[in-house]
Write a structure and sequence with these properties.
This protein is mainly alpha-helical. It has two domains: 55-205, Alpha/alpha barrel (Glycosyltransferase), CATH 1.50.10; 240-429, Glycosyltransferase (Alpha/alpha barrel). Helices cover 44% and strands 10% of the residues. Strand 8 and strand 9 form a beta hairpin. The longest helix has 24 residues, at 2-25. The chain is globular. The N and C termini lie far apart (69 Å).
Length: 453
């Protein structure tokens, strides 16, 4: 009997050993992913970006500014940005899905934020760009902003689709209150760029940039819908004056033809794209805006490399010219092709991070490089920008005197676009919920986009 027992144990051991050997022969896709280390860094950046919104947004329920999100941190501690609120609302479902907060916590924050937004001052449904974090009142005599209101509504839509119920009701109430036609310059058939109560309307969205989402929201509105002519007017301008091919002086590679922006900043190819999934749709003229954004990103990447003989910051793992802080000012830094681009060695890490859906490997290697710089990383991940100065002090003496420089601030909209694009890369969460919204689908169809399900 003892002998039989021993033989049985040996047989079980052999079966187990064979099973283990078979398991060892099965490839683990994660273990075999050569970019897994870089992806882990990227996902860490997403978590820290979420923490930025969850921890720095006003969560004092007795405050008139409940739900308002910081324009920047730690700088300007009393200033909130309405666009940052939109990114904060979008971040909530990301936090729930990743287990960083509970669904109950997320729903409570989203609902109370939307409730408070309905108490704040609006002009024909549009919000002021900058608000006091604690009073909810207009700050800096800022403009009544169509683009910042649009980004806030986009975030509200994501939260509405994710949570449903009262969150959806509140989000729809805010959306329905926006009179998109009021913001239209009837003589040019374009949206104005801004409205100041003291001086009236000014500027024009006369080229394609980060405002693409406005045409979709306006054309899909239940209460104040616009027709497709606004989009078609701007598209006509772009086709006439904003198309070209970038040729790299380093690699000789041609990128394009593609539609470029006025100043060549990468965020202009990211903000609307974080919400609208352009990958499988084309407009009435067959334009593939996802492909266009990919080409614009590749041109920005190559332009940075082409100028690496001028600035120490620029390289194949340090790229991304976009709006950001700089050693001496905040401005929209940009690459060619552009009508009027400017750069001085300042790199905004978020620009490469948020490009991961366009240039995967280039983005991942850049993130790895940024995280190797102790001065660039803090409690909420990557700070806004840095500049290592010119290769030759004589080339730009002013910047040379101010560098090396590392930003001390995080900027809300930049942490937001990083988080959203990373989550889309990992799970397509934002695209999924935004694109299932009936108003969004209706807006795209009304503008003449094809293949909208």
């Amino acid at each position: 009997m003892k002998k039989v027992l021993i033989m049985c144990l040996l047989l079980i051991s052999m079966i187990g050993l064979t099973a283990c050997q078979q398991d060892d022969d099965v490839d683990d896709p994660i273990d075999n992913d050569p970019l897994q280390a870089q992806k882990d860094i990227l996902y860490n950046e997403a978590e820290l970006s979420f923490k930025f919104f969850w921890e720095t947004t006003n969560s004092d329920e007795s405050s008139a500014g409940y739900g308002l999100s910081r324009d920047r941190y730690p700088g300007n501690p009393t200033i909130a940005s309405v666009a940052s609120v939109g990114f904060a609302l979008t971040s909530i479902p990301v936090g729930v899905e990743n287990g960083w907060i509970t669904r109950e916590e997320g729903m409570d924050r989203a609902q109370k934020t939307l409730e408070n937004l309905l108490t704040l001052d609006r002009v024909n449904g549009f919000y002021y760009h900058f608000l006091n974090m604690y009073t909810g009142q207009r700050e800096w005599n800022s403009e009544v902003s169509i683009i910042d209101t649009g980004l806030m509504i986009a975030g509200a839509i994501v939260a509405a689709e994710y949570f449903g119920g009262e969150v959806a009701t509140l989000a729809n109430t805010i959306y329905d209150g926006v009179d998109w036609n009021w913001y239209v310059n009837e003589s040019s058939n374009m949206f104005y760029m801004g409205y100041d109560p003291e001086s009236g309307f000014g500027g024009a969205w006369n080229h394609m940039a980060e405002q693409m989402i406005l045409y979709v929201l306006a054309a899909g509105s239940d209460t104040y819908p616009t027709d497709d002519s606004l989009y078609k007017t701007v598209k006509s301008n772009v086709r006439a004056a904003y198309v070209g091919t970038y040729t790299s002086t380093t690699t000789g590679e041609d990128v394009g033809p593609y539609y470029y922006t006025y100043d060549g900043s990468l965020f202009q190819h990211q903000f609307s794209h974080a919400f609208i999934d352009f990958r499988d749709i084309v407009d009435y003229q067959g334009t593939d805006w996802f492909s266009n954004a990919t080409m614009a990103t590749k041109a920005n990447y190559l332009y940075t490399i082409d100028k690496s003989d001028l600035y120490n910051t620029y390289s194949a793992t340090s790229w991304g010219l976009s709006a950001s802080d700089g050693p001496n000012e905040y401005r929209a830094y940009g690459a060619g092709l552009a009508k009027s681009n400017y750069h001085n060695g300042t790199i905004a890490p978020y620009a490469a991070v948020a490009s991961v859906n366009y240039l995967e490997e280039e983005s991942l290697y850049a993130v790895e490089n940024y995280y190797s710089m102790e001065e660039l990383v803090g409690e909420y991940g990557l700070k806004d920008a840095y500049n290592l100065g010119p290769v030759s002090a004589l080339y730009n003496p002013t910047i040379n005197s101010l560098t090396p420089w590392y930003d001390s601030d995080y900027i809300g909209i930049d942490k937001g676009i990083s988080l959203l694009m990373i989550e889309n890369y990992q799970s397509e969460l934002i695209w999924t919920y935004f694109m299932q919204n009936e108003n969004v689908r209706e807006g795209l169809i009304n503008l003449g986009f094809l293949n909208v399900e």
